[in-house]
Amino acid sequence: MILRRGSNALRLIAVCTGLVLLMPGCQSLQPRDLAGDEVAAQPALKLPFAEPEPARRELDEDLVFSYLVGEIGAHRGELRLSQSHYQHAAILARDAYAAERATRIALHLKDYQAGLAAARRWVELAPNDMSARQLAAVLFMRDQQQDAAAEQLDALVLIADARNVDGYLQAAGALSVESDRAAAEQLMLGLHERNRDDVRSLYALAVLEAAHRNFGQAETRLREVIERKPDWDQPRVLLARVLVAQSRRGDALAFLDDSVRRYPDAEAVRTTYARMLVDDSEYAKALEQFRELYRRNPDDDELAFGYAMLATQQEAWDEARPVWQALRNDAERRDEASYYLAQVEERVGNDDLAIGLFGAVSGGDLKIDAVMRKAQILGRTGRLEQARDTLQQARIANPGRAADLYIAETQLVQKHGPSEVALALYDDALRAFDENHDLRYNRALFVLELGDFEGMERELRHILDQDPDNVDALNALGYTLADRNERLDEAFTLVARALKLKPDNPAILDSMGWVFYRQGNLSEAASYLRRALELTNDDEIAAHLGEVLWMKGQREDAQAVWREALEHKPGSDKIRAVIERLQAASQ
Fold it and tell me: Which among 20, 93, 159, 319 counts the fewest CB atoms within 10 Å?
């Protein structure tokens, strides 16, 4: 939209006054330092470049019109119109804000010549503004004016030092997104060479090279930085990440381990090390690092939460408990802390305390799970009716989770109540949620436990009629047919369909192995069962593999599989049952 100039300057001034909140340029036509409010808050701060004298210009029609068109054009997306009018306003009023807006809009338009002209004026009007220096350096570089770009970076470092900021990192940040990586690195290298005695310049150069994925060169420079300033955390953290980026994770972990031993106060290094250990499932070692971090920073809630979670995962109950208790004092963490503290108390046998803590979870994503966990404890401790009442009340209060709460109640009654009550509850639940496949699948497995294979197959067929690719139903029906040694071709077809959908699922691999076993193909059976056991240490899979190996005549191998499984799950009924059955049959 084209805005025409009016003849009434007073009318334009009135419009400007009405838009004052939208238009910082109209609030004050005096140059202002856009490098940050901290300058005003610290009047004694000595900056390296003299600020220009404030311009004294009365509001006139031309100036007000330029601001109005610049602002309104920007809001309406007419950016070229906006940029030219901001540029005009910057010239008329010598206003750094207008020059900044003109620069940024030109950059957005990729009009680098206009951007460079605006940036020159911005630097002239706000010589101590770090953003102005950064953008001017970038625009000079894009215009092949390397010396001028270097001057801007030198100025940036001086300004940053005065503000107690790392100007070298500011330079690296500005250059890191440039498409001409070689030119950017050359410019940064020049900045370093002019400041060789300042190790920060070398680190910033390494940061830029790492951002450009020039990891080998970055590693070399980082090692030099560390040699020159060994107690500086950030180069050590970056070196570890550079090593990981070069597929040298082991080297990174060894380096971090050595670093925290040499420099125990290096918290950023220790934090990086702890997180990498968690990523590698080295939980015991990670807990050692989190323990030390928490000792040094007991008021850091984020750190405390991670420490408590790890201690809970490692079953260090006495270690986790006081941290969760402390986190309950934080209103934002109270629900989470109550939930996990309840888990701790449940695991150590404090059931009533756990019930109270689960009940204290008043909202958030964990609320329904807390209700279910509370009900499980009530059911396990002989208070089934109270458990059911807890779930029923939650179902009324949370209709969006009613199906999940029905599932929890059916499983509870299955385990602790009469089977006819459980079946009646399934009937009620399926009347309310006839299309809920999880409910119907659970009912199928339950009726199979009661010896009703036909009922189980009927429920699973119902699921498959609606969802032919339901992996759980395919696998359950196929495995059950094989386990009953019935309709083995059909069992194979069902499990093969499931395996095609989830080729790395250990439960389905186990089923396929069992189908082959029933078909008499022991070699294929052993192959699938080994793959399944490699994916998960499950005692039922181990029982199956051991049986297949035993029937192949590899009895020592079978016993080795069972022994290892019993180490992971001592007292496994599945392992002991198959051993007793096969040994009895061989006598």
Answer: 20
Quick one: average pLDDT of 344-360? Answer: 97
Q: How far apart are CA 245 and CA 237, in angstroms?
A: 13
Close Cβ partners of 274 (under 8 Å, ≥ 6 residues apart): 286, 289, 290, 293
Phi and psi angles of residue 305, each rounded to the nearest 5 degrees, phi first = -65, -45
Give the CB-side neighbour count of residue 439, counting CA atoms within 13 A: 24
CB atoms within 10 A of CB 580: 10
Amino acid at residue number 72: I
What contacts 35, CB < 8 A, 6 or more positions away? 126, 128, 129, 130, 131, 132, 159, 163
Entry pTM: 0.77
Q: What is the mean pLDDT of residues 432-445?
A: 96
For residues 134 and 121, give the distance between their C-alpha atoms in angstroms, rounded to a whole number: 14
Tokens of 82: 């906006």
Q: Are 327 and 355 in contact (CB under 8 A)?
A: no
Average pLDDT over the chain reads 89
* Tokens found for residue 368: 């329904």
Query: Are the C-beta atoms of 211 and 224 separated by less than 8 Å?
Result: no
Are 493 and 516 contacting, i.e. CB atoms less than 8 angstroms apart? no
DSSP state of 373: H
Q: Which of 44-58, 106-120, 184-198, 335-349 has the lowest mean pLDDT?
A: 44-58
Task: Give the Å distances, CA to CA, from 324 to 73, 290, 310.
Answer: 54, 15, 12
* Alpha-carbon 31 to chain mean position: 43
> What is the dihedral angle through the alpha carbons of 407, 409, 410, 416, rounded to the nearest 10 degrees?
140
Cβ contact 46:77 at 8 Å: no
Token code pair at residue 439 = 């409910």
Q: Return d(Cα 510, Cα 490) in angstroms, integer.
A: 17
